[in-house]
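re: that complex we talked abt at group meeting.

here r the seqs, copy pasted straight from the sheet so there may be weird spacing, ignore it
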Amino acid sequence: MRLSAELQDAIQRETDKVDHRKLAQATAQITEHYKAADFSTPAVASEAHRAAYLAVRLPATYAAIQRVFAEIKLRAPREEIVSLLDLGAGPGTVLLAAAEQFPQLQQATLIESDAGWIAVGKRLAEQSGSTIVQQAQWLKQDLRSGLTCEKHDLVVISYTLGELPQAAAEAVLNKAWKCAAKFLVVIEPGTRRGFAAINAARSALLANAAMILAPCPHHFTCPMDAVGDWCHFSQRVERTSQHRQLKGGALGYEDEKFSYLVAAKSAAPSKGARIVRHPGKHSGHVKLALCTAKGQIENRTITRSSKEAYKRTRKAGWGDLWIE
Ligand SMILES: C[S@@+](CC[C@H](N)C(=O)[O-])C[C@H]1O[C@@H](n2cnc3c(N)ncnc32)[C@H](O)[C@@H]1O
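got the structure back, here u go
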């Protein structure tokens, strides 16, 4: 996955406003902050931090969001997403991804507590060719101070829930679910900590009669803890030359690890099992780690002798649904 040339240019214009040495310093600071995952102080607290986020984090969060939206389209192809509510919008990453994935989108509301982010988001929006992006409504509001909202088809909390204290996260999640007419999406970093936030959200939503559209093909207790693992996926994203300069390393891409949940107000039961690790593709056989409809982690080996299944499995990737 790569960012559009339009978005890359808009980001470049923002990062050009910050002296290169300051940008490199800010990149190191936010990277350290996210690694430490201590959100008692905000990770992004200055213009230089915001520019660094655009250069080195937005491409990855954007790619993860795109992947999750593609999953909604795959699992619920007939559902139209006409309205969007984004909680903890930052530079409007969710809006930019939604405008590409959901062409029927007519109305978008973005809630963000940081005035600096709202200003950046509006500048990025001005440079977008999309009317829905240009016309989105930005609200400066602290999610912890009680959220009022109208129903929106799709509500998204992307890389934000885990930054809130636990009690606030629970309250925001409950409110977000009430604001959702069709789907609520929660995305977090694909770390044990990020997964713990997703798993807690999953339990709370199931207790509120939610259907889990993805990634889980079941509504049982998540089996990952029991096998000492955590549910996460990986999205490859092309790195720009600026990204390589700021973060070092020679690779032309990075793999963003993320955990996510799509809760639906109504959904047909999932068919198949979710592939929860990179498939091991060997000569004549493929090894799969699956989360099954029974709510269990199972390892399977598909050999060349199962012709049709083998052919399909060779094309399957981590995060795909796999149908027996
Ligand atoms: C890591 S950024 C994620 C931005 C964007 N959603 C994305 O996926 O790229 C987290 C965002 O949540 C916002 N945020 C954190 N706590 C908040 C709160 N209590 N109320 C509103 N926004 C908040 C931050 O200001 C920041 O913009």
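couple things i noticed - Residues 58, 61, 88-90, 93-94, 112-114, 117, 142-144, 158-160, 163-164 surround S-adenosylmethionine (CB under 6 Å). The first strand starts at residue 83 and ends at 87.
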